[in-house]
Structures are given as C-alpha cells and as structure tokens.
Amino acid sequence: MFRTHTRSPRQSRNTGRRSPLATTALIAVGLLFTGGAYAAFSTTTASAETSHAASAGTVEEGKKLFQANCASCHGLALQGTDDGPSLIGVGSASVDFQVGTGRMPLQAQGPQAPVKPVQFTDEQVRALAEYVATTGPGPSIPDESLLQADGDAANGAELFRVNCAMCHNVAGAGGALTEGKYAPALTGVEPVHIYEAMVTGPQNMPVFNDANLSPEDKRDIITALKFTQENSTVGGHALGSLGPVAEGLFIWIFGLGAIVALTVWITARSN
Amino acid sequence: MSTVTAPADTTKAPAKKSGGFTAAASNYLDERTSISAAVKEFGRKIFPDHWSFLLGEVALYSFVIILLSGTFLTFFFQASMAEVHYEGSYIPLKGVEMSAAMASTLDISFDIRGGLLMRQVHHWAALLFVASIGLHMLRVFFTGAFRKPRELNWVIGFVLFILAMAEGFTGYSLPDDLLSGNGLRIIDGMVKGIPVIGTWTSYLLFGGEFPGTEIVGRLYSLHILLLPAMVLAFIALHLLFVVVHKHTQYAGPGHTEQNVVGYPVLPVYAAKAGGFFFIVFGVVMLIASLFTINPIWNYGPYDPSPVSAGTQPDWYIGFADGGLRLAPSNLDLVLFNHTFSFGILLPLAVIGIFIVAVMFYPFLEAWITGDKREHHILDRPRNAATRTAIGAAGVTFYAVLWAAASSDIIATHFSVTMEGVIRTLQVLLFVGPVIAYFVTKRICLGLQKKDREIALHGYESGRIVRLPGGEYIEVHEPVSDYERWKLASHEEYKPLMIRPNSRGKITVAQKVRAGLSRWFFEDRISPVTRTEIESSHGDHH
C-alpha cells in the first residue's frame, strides 16, 4: 500500500495535478497521517469522542474484558453456567448497573452481591455493556434527559411509597429480606443506577418496565429520592433515617446517659 | 417549681424582721391562706442526696416539658381525618391527598415558626419520659425500695409506666403518617386476633372497618385529655406517698430505719431541684434542635396499601412488637369455625403475665421472705443476691423482646440473616434469663465474699514486709469505720421454717412458701458481726 501511494505522485507529475489520481493520493496521505496519529494516541488515552466512531472496536474490547473477567461464571458465549446466569438479552442497562456499582465481578458466592469499589473505568464498563448488548435486545442505558432529577417530586414520592418502600424503607434507608438478602439503602446511588435497577430488576428486585412505570414516572421517583436525600437534614441530624430504633437507642445512650452524668455531677458537689 | 421557690421567701422574711415588700407580701399571703404551716412542714422535709434518687425527678420534669410543648402543638394541630390536598411548602408532598391531621402536622413542621422544634421537643421528651421511668423503676427494684411500706407506691408507679406508654402510643398515631398508620394496623390486627370479641372491638375502636375516619379524633381526646389527667393524678398520688413514707436512704453511718439523713427541701434542695429542671429542659432542647425525630415528611400520608420496610414502634412499645415477631407464625387453630391465631394470642399472654408479675412482685417477695418489717434503708443489690438475679433475668427477657423488634435492622446492619436473628432471639428468650439469673447470683455472692473479707481484714496494700524472724507478710490497710459500716450493716435473712398452722396442719401453701424461701436464701454469705470485727482487730494479715 505504502509503496503504491508514494509512487502515484510521481506518475501524476507527468499528467499534471489535475490527474484523477491526485485526489486519491491526497486522501491517502491524509488518512495516513490521521490514522498514524490515532494509533499513537489511542494506546495511551481512549478519548470519549472516538467511542462512537469506533463502536466495533469497543465491542471487541468489551468482549476481551468479558472473557477475562466474567466468562468463568457467565460462560464464554454468555450462555451461563452453574455459577452465574445467562446474560443473553439482559441489555446494556443491566451490565452498567451491575458492573458500574461494583456488584460485578462477584468476589464470592453469597445471598446477594454487595456494592463494592468499582473495578473498571467508565469506558471499560461501557465496552462491556455494549458487548453484552450485541448478543440480544434488552433494556439499554437510559437517556440523560431522564436522569436530571427535575421531574414531579410529589408524584415520585407517592410512587415510591406504593412500589418501593416495602423493601427499601420509606426513607430509602434499605431493609432486610429473607435468608440474608436485603434491599440496599438508596442514599448516594447515582440516578442512572436507580433507573437501571428499575428497568432490569437486579437480584431480588422486581422489574418495573415502561408499561408498569413510564420513563417519566421513573424520572419522578429519582427526583423524589434526590430531593429527600438533599433535604434530609430539615430537623437536624437524621440518625441514619432508621426511624424509631435509632431514636430509641439515641435517647437511652446519649439522652439518658447525659442526664445520668448530670445527676452524678449535681449530687457530687455536696460530698 | 415556682410554687416551691416563692414560699421560700416567706420563711426567710420573718427571720430578717426588716420589713420591706417581701415580708409584707408574705404576711399578706399567710394571713389569707395560712400557707406558712404547709411551707414549714414541707420545707423541712429531708431528701437524701444520691444521684440515683434524681431519676424519678427526671421523669417528672420530662412530663412538664411534654405538657408545655404539647400545649403549643394543640394550637395548630387538627385532629381530623377529613381529606385535604396538601398545599404547604414541602415540595414532595405538594398536592398530595392526605388527612387534615397529617397536613396540619406538616404545617407545624414547615410553616409555623418554631413548630418543628416544638414537635421534636415533644417527641424527644416523650422518649426520655418513658426511659427515665424505666431507669427509675430499675433503681427502685434493685435497691429493694419497693418493700414495706412502699409496695402500693410501686404499683402506682407501675401504672404510671403503663399510662406513659399509652400516652406515647396515642401520640405516635396522631400525625396519621405512614409509619403511625402501620403501627395502628398492627394494633388493629392484635385486637382482631382476640377470639369472639376481637372483630367487634376493632369496629368499635375504629368506628367501622380499619382505618375509618374516626380514630385520630378519638386518640386525640385520649392523648390530650383523659390520659394526661390520669398521669397527673397518679403523679400526685405517687409524690404524696413519697412524702408520707419519707425518702429511703442508702446505708451509712448514722443512717437508721427511723431517720432520714440529707438536706431539707428549703432552701438548698429546692434550689437544686429547680435548677435541675432547667438542666433537663436544656438537654432535651439541645437534642431536639440537633437531631431529627419522626420525620413524617419522609414517611408521607397514611394509605393502607404501602407498608414500609423497617417499620417499628417507638422504643417503649418495642418489646410488644418483638413478642409478635418472635412468636411462631404457623400456630393458627381452627375450632368451631373460628380461627385462633396463637401467633398473636401467645405473645399477648406472655407479655400480659410478664407485666402482672412485675407489677405484683413486691407482694410476692414479701410473702416468700415473710418479712413484715418496714424498710427505709436500701439494699445494696449484691446483698439481695436472689432478687438481683431475678431482676437481671427479667431485664434480659425484656431486652430480648426489645431487640427482636429491630430484628430486620440487626440483620441488615450486621450482615446476618433475618431468620438467624429471629431463631437466635427465640432461643435467647428462654435461655438468656436463666443464664443471667445464675451468673448474676454468683457475681453477687462473690462480691459479698469480697466485702466480708475487706470488712474483716482491710484492703490489700501490696506492701510486703519481712519480719525479724524471716517471715514475709503483706500489710493490709484497715478500712475506715465509715466504709465498714456500708460493708457490714445489712441484715441476714434465713429460709423460713415450715410451721404448722393453728390447727396443727402443714398446708400446701406453707410448703410452697418454705420451698420458695429456701430458693431465695439458701445460698448466702453471713454479714460480718460485731464480734468478728472485734476479734479481727488484733489480726495483721
């Protein structure tokens, strides 16, 4: 290739720069430079702009990551094994949720995958998600416009009480399920992960599809949750939003503790 | 407290004989009310000084704080279940349909100046009220202050404890938020679980099918009218008995069954007690301004369909909730076309028996020990080993029930399974009190032995001395006479003998009583006697 291209300008000198080959040559040179520059940069940094253009490359990277980190449980063809379910058709939202919150890769089999530090960069998570999404249609990562927490908080709060509070607690503080499973606390969870959890139903959570809760409803729920979290300190320290148990422990340990210390102080003076 | 401090001036004034406004005013008052006699009598009452004697006062002061803050809340609270659309300033509930009770509570929290603080003061003070009653009861129990002549006052105090819980529960239900509605639903279920009359009682209570539109108004009447009046009446009775019986005191030099050593009410004690009220108020105020309690805006209005995870009652109802959680849920029995839910009846019965046992414990112990003397000097808990052990067993039983009410929170926060927590607590409910009983009793007896040793031979000083003859001895520091009094002044009890009655027969009751008495006093350490102390004086090791 290189040789043919370098030879072509020499031929073009005979016929002048208006030769039809001149255009081809210019394009070739241009491609050579940009391609070389791309190759030089892409080894050090993967820029966000190129991810769209090079989707095929991302999928390929995702496949490699999958084979290295996930296939031992989910199978090389995503078909699932005794240790992990099939991932065919789970969609990119599911992968983004599970890997993006650190739940996957799982460290040990247990009642439930706990949240832990995320093991991959955002690009790697995206690559994994795109790779898994190519194997079958499934819920995809939601659009940014639904994640701005700018919907109707009142509607969202009501939907949350009716649909979510029985497991996640009415203040989103989390709750216990059977056999060591639990609904995690929702404080500090990214809006995108809340949305993805609703559409994919990870672990013991039921799926809330778009017929069940419309995308706008999901946006409202996110709005309500974010509002509650940002305004949870209306009456002072929230004591973990755990309700009467935390309040009771507080009054016995710190309230009554302080009072008893004061009674000792007030009577000790006379001795 | 103003009623106590104001008359203080009236007693001082005549002593000064300097005239002036105070003297004139007190003279004016006395001539019209003859109050000086009462002030003289009450002002000279003696109260001994010990921190544990102030716990009842904490309860009293919390109640005063509750009355004050509660009055503020009644100005703005609407005890109505009429449906309204919330139009206040809390955004996530704007336009949501709710009862007027919930809406007015939200208004108190967000739109009335100082309202949220007053709500939190009221609720925190309520928690402190019941908690301080609990601690006060433990003090009275473990020091034997309930013995003759104070058995009835123990019962009155216990009724106050029950009334306080009722006050708390009715208040908890008033805002008509999701959490309190869930709590009411549990009560409704318990009432309906009672055979034959259950369903009818529930309909009577709620004015129809749960939740109806009546219950908040009814609970409000109880909460602000009937129950506080009863609490006040019983507090008055309780304090009257304290005055009549005089205060108990701990053993010490000069302390006898016939006297009370301490400070007169006026002026020092009244000033101290008055100041202590403001300290308690300050602590409650500080807690209420720094820590959220019952954030109903998070819970939202009550609606029978949603039930939140982690729904618990306030701490003092926790033991009953724990009982429900620990009872096996598959004990339904169908008889004559009626379902008997033993998952509800069993905990109800167990808790009922527990409450009655605590309430009548003074009479039970008096019968077992056969002790008919008056007691004004308190026991050190270790010197009444069996009673202390029974108390520890009771505390353990209560604590297990209490912990069970937060079984789900224990499960999530300690990463254990819910079933594991419940199973463990079920076993602990029966095994825990037994272990606590024996461990406590052994500890008490061990401490008694140590006390006896110290009273006779003094403290180990750690100083080793070699005698001229080559012998090594450790020097024991003798205890002071004041110390020894505390260590050696308690009485010795012995098991009752079985005696035939007037007709020469030994009844079954006598045998039971003798058996129980043996159980109570069989293991004991004899207190140090005067002769033992005197003979030990020449001893040097």
From TrEMBL, chain A:
Report the top EC class in one word. translocase
Protein keywords: Cell membrane, Electron transport, Heme, Iron, Lyase, Membrane, Metal-binding, Repeat, Respiratory chain, Signal, Translocase, Transmembrane, Transmembrane helix, Transport
* Positions contributing to heme c 1 binding: C70, C73, H74
InterPro entries linked = bc1_cytC-su (IPR009152), Cyt_c-like_dom (IPR009056), Cyt_c-like_dom_sf (IPR036909), Cytochrome_c_Oxidase_Subunit (IPR050597)
Cytochrome c domain spans which residues? 57-136, 151-229
One Pfam family from the record: Cytochrom_C
Topology relative to the membrane = Multi-pass membrane protein
Q: Which reaction does it catalyse?
A: a quinol + 2 Fe(III)-[cytochrome c](out) = a quinone + 2 Fe(II)-[cytochrome c](out) + 2 H(+)(out)
Processing and modification events after translation: Binds 2 heme c groups covalently per subunit.
Q: Which residues bind heme c 2?
A: C164, C167, H168
UniProt subcellular location: Cell membrane
Per the UniProt record, which EC number(s) apply here? 7.1.1.8
Which is one GO molecular function term here?
Answer: lyase activity
Segment forming the signal sequence: 1-39
Q: Which residue windows are transmembrane per the record?
A: 249-268
Gene Ontology, cellular component aspect: plasma membrane
Q: What does the record note on quaternary structure? A: The cytochrome bc1 complex is composed of a cytochrome b (QcrB), the Rieske iron-sulfur protein (QcrA) and a diheme cytochrome c (QcrC) subunit.
Tell me the protein's name. Cytochrome bc1 complex cytochrome c subunit
UniProtKB/TrEMBL annotation, chain B:
Example GO biological process term?
A: respiratory electron transport chain
The highest taxon in the source lineage is Bacteria
Give Gene Ontology CC terms: plasma membrane
Q: Mention one GO molecular function.
A: quinol-cytochrome-c reductase activity
Tell me where in or outside the cell this protein is found: Cell membrane
Keyword terms, alphabetized:
Cell membrane, Electron transport, Heme, Iron, Membrane, Metal-binding, Respiratory chain, Translocase, Transmembrane, Transmembrane helix, Transport
| Residues in Cytochrome b/b6 N-terminal region profile domain copies | 25-251
Keyword match Transmembrane: yes
Which InterPro entries does this one have? Cyt_b/b6_N, Cytb/b6-like_sf, Di-haem_cyt_TM
Which cofactors, by name?
heme
Q: Which reaction does it catalyse?
A: a quinol + 2 Fe(III)-[cytochrome c](out) = a quinone + 2 Fe(II)-[cytochrome c](out) + 2 H(+)(out)
Any matching Pfam family: Cytochrom_B_N_2
Membrane topology (UniProt): Multi-pass membrane protein
Which Enzyme Commission number(s) are listed? Answer: 7.1.1.8
Query: PROSITE patterns given for it?
Result: CYTB_NTER (PS51002)
The residue ranges crossing the membrane are: 53-77, 121-142, 154-174, 220-244, 276-297, 340-364, 384-405, 420-440
Full protein name: Cytochrome bc1 complex cytochrome b subunit
Species the sequence originates in: Mycetocola zhadangensis
